[in-house]
Amino acid sequence: MQSTTIQCSVATKKKLKGLKNHPEETMENLLVRLIQFFDEDDEISKEDIAEMKKSIDNIAKGKVKSLSEIRKKYSKK
C-alpha cells in the first residue's frame, strides 16, 4: 500500500488519538472509520425528513414533556 504524510496541529493529533477505539488502532484505521461515518452517500430519507418536521412542529406547539415529567409518570411508586 502506498502511503503519504499529512500535516496537522499537535492539538488535532491529540484529538484524533482520543478518538481511537484502542491505543493500538492505527491512524489509517481511525481515519477510514471517520470517513465511513461521515460518508456523503448517506442520505436522509423522505420519511426521516417528514418525521423530523413532525417533531419540530410538535415542539413548536408545546406538545412535549420534560424528562422529569416522564420520570414522574412512569416511576414505580
Characterize the structure shown.
The protein is mostly helical and about 80 residues long. It folds into two domains: about 40 residues; about 35 residues, no CATH class. About 55% of the residues lie in helices and about 0% in strands. The chain contains four helices and no strands. It is elongated, with a radius of gyration of 21 Å. The N and C termini lie far apart (about 60 Å). The model has no long low-confidence stretch (mean pLDDT about 90).
Mean pLDDT: 90
Tell me the series of helices and strands, N- to C-terminal: HHHH
Count the E strands. 0
Number of domains: 2
What characteristic shape results from the CA principal axes? elongated
Tally of helical segments = 4
Poorly predicted spans: none
The share of residues in extended strands comes to: under 5%
Structural class per helix/strand content?
A: mainly alpha
* Rg calc: 21 Å
Protein topology:
Blueprint: H1 10-18, H2 27-37, H3 46-60, H4 67-74
Highlighted features:
56% helix; 4 helices; 2 domains; mainly alpha; 77 residues
In short:
It is built from four helices and no strands.
